[in-house]
Amino acid sequence: MSLTAQEKQQAMAWWLRLPGKRGVNIPEGEYDKIYPVAAGIALGVGVRQPHPRQLQWLHDNQITEPADIHAAFAGLPHPNAPNVTVGAYPQYAKAYQTYQQHSK
Amino acid sequence: MATPTDAEIASIAAEYSLPPALLLGIVHQEGASAGFGLTDATLGAYNLSITQLQSDPLMALTVAARTLAQTFQQTGSWDSALSVYLTGNADAWQSPTSPIGGKVTAILGSAALNPSFGLSRSFTPSDAKLFSSGSTSFAKQLEQMSTSGGITQQTVTSYQQAAAQISTQPFVASANMQQVAADILTAAKLPVTDANVAVIDTMAKGEGMPLGDFNWLATTQGQGKDINSVGVKAFGTYQEGIDATAATLLNGNYGSLVGLMGQGVDLKTIASNPGVQANLRTWQGGSNEDVGLLGGLANVPGTAPSATAKAAPKTANLTAQMVPNPAAVGEFAQQLQAANIDPQEFTANFPNLAAVRRQLLSAKRTSVSDYADVSNALQAQGQGVSQAGIVATVRGQPHPNYPNVTAGAFADTFGTAMLHSVMHTRQVPTNGEVARLVGLDNKEISTYYQQKAAAKSPAAQPQSSAGKIAQLGRTS
């Protein structure tokens, strides 16, 4: 199946509207700086790649240093643990384990 | 650069004895870069150029796998190994100012998306020891990642089970074997008791079969593939092995063994039975090995089903303790937040509170609200939560059974009363007696027990009823 010229144009326009593209919305050098750190956090926390909108937001807000990216993610709600932010999760997980171990 | 197929990745991982998921993680995270993120120094060492690797992705992946296997052998952990792989520096991943830490975590995280990737029955690592070591380290890495809440217990457990099934090593005693034994017994409709599990486990040790053949007791029955001249099978699935082993036990040749197992007798009774010993020799083609192994074991009860045999393997239980469920953590966090409790402070002080409550209040359970009560009481006094504060607060709480006295005063009086009661009456004081003695000093308590002893003596005269001490004696 091949696309008509108009469909190709529409597909391209749609693709161009997507955020977080390396070398398109985000310069390659900056993307390569942001992506590994963001992926390290997102994969560890939610077993998923960082969302392109997250990458775009980091770029738009000039958050490119590892410590700043960590700080930005730390404030987000944890994807698997309601009521907890990504940054606070390890502390609550440890408290929960302590509770399980000693409450009975 | 073309991406290698899953089969190619698994094949190269087997050649270099790597967990295939890690190599897949490198392909996913570094596949866009020339040479899968290998350093110039590494490429130089192989006398390869980026151009060559770009035109031959399988060669690039082979170099990547070989380098990763070498760096793991040098460092012993995957985060350091990946750090060396990417930069040449084992510590680079730990630097907060470098993106290498993120790259390393991203590769590991990508591997964690499907940690059991490639671990099919056909996966045969060339170096069993290296694979085992790498696999154990990867499992630890998964557990560490679980502290962020992305990896679940099931993920870690299923990886450990998949890795354990790789037929690389002769049988080693494994907590998994308890689950296998329980499943065989269940399939044979025999009771899952400690003794019966021990028998199956011991027979498996005697056979020494590779775990990946799913034929722990080396049966020749069933539809598996023959792996030796006698017709011992290798089964395609776990369940086939379980069913064939159960069918063998019930084929009529092992009546004494099955009969005693069915009665749920203890291990000593099974091991010392001549009929069972004959059955075991039949099972082992005349060998006495199983008989000797069973005879050397300490006795194990037969009737009570074992919790460990019925539950998941010990390794999984351990993992369950180490890897909390993120949803449960979220619910627990809500409780702490509602009570305005800092999680770090809770972690530091909750064990003390639980121990003090067990000791002074005979509390079987300590809840978050118990902690909140103590924390609030201390805050009202302008104090933070501390060990001394916890002890003082719990001591000041009413005794659960004698609310007119405090738990602390009761505990102190109990110690003194115990001393004098045993000395004079050779009896342990009752709790009611202790509660009534609260407020008396050491001398008064001593006098009380002297009078009590005298009152019980046949030669003793009735005591005067005057005074508090005599009054306590009469009411005791």
Architecture overview:
- The complex is a heterodimer of chains A (104) and B (476).
- With 104 residues, chain A is mostly helical.
- Chain A has one domain.
- Chain A is built from five helices and no strands.
- The radius of gyration of chain A is 19 Å and the shape is elongated.
- Chain B folds into four domains: 6-164, no CATH class; 176-310; 326-396, no CATH class; 407-475.
- Helices cover 62% and strands 1% of the residues of chain B.
- Chain B has 26 helices and two strands.
- Chain B has helices at 6-15, 20-30, 40-45, 50-55, 57-75, 78-87, 100-113, 128-146, 153-164, 176-187, 194-207, 238-249, 255-263, 267-272, 274-283, 289-295, 307-310, 314-322, 326-338, 343-361, 368-380, 387-396, 407-425, 431-437, 442-456, 467-475; strands at 225-226, 233-234.
- In chain B, helix 1 (6-15) packs across helix 2.
- The radius of gyration of chain B is 33 Å and the shape is flat.
- Classes of the chains: A mainly alpha (104), B mainly alpha (476).
- At the A-B interface, helix 2, helix 4 and helix 5 of A face helix 7, helix 19 and helix 20 of B.
List keywords for this structure.
heterodimer, A: 104 residues, mainly alpha, 0% strand, B: 476 residues, 4 domains, two-stranded antiparallel sheet, 26 helices, 62% helix, 1% strand
User: Level of helix content of chain B?
Assistant: 55-70%
Provide mean pLDDT of chain A, rounded.
87
Q: What number of structural domains do the residues of chain B give?
A: 4
Give the biggest beta sheet of chain B.
2 strands, antiparallel
Helix content estimate of chain A: 55-70%
Shape of chain A: elongated
Largest sheet of chain A: none
Shape call of chain B? flat
Which stretches of chain B are low in confidence, meaning pLDDT under 50 for 5 or more residues running? 168-175, 304-321, 460-466
Average pLDDT for all residues of chain B: 80
pLDDT < 50 stretches of chain A: none
Work out the helix count of chain A: 5
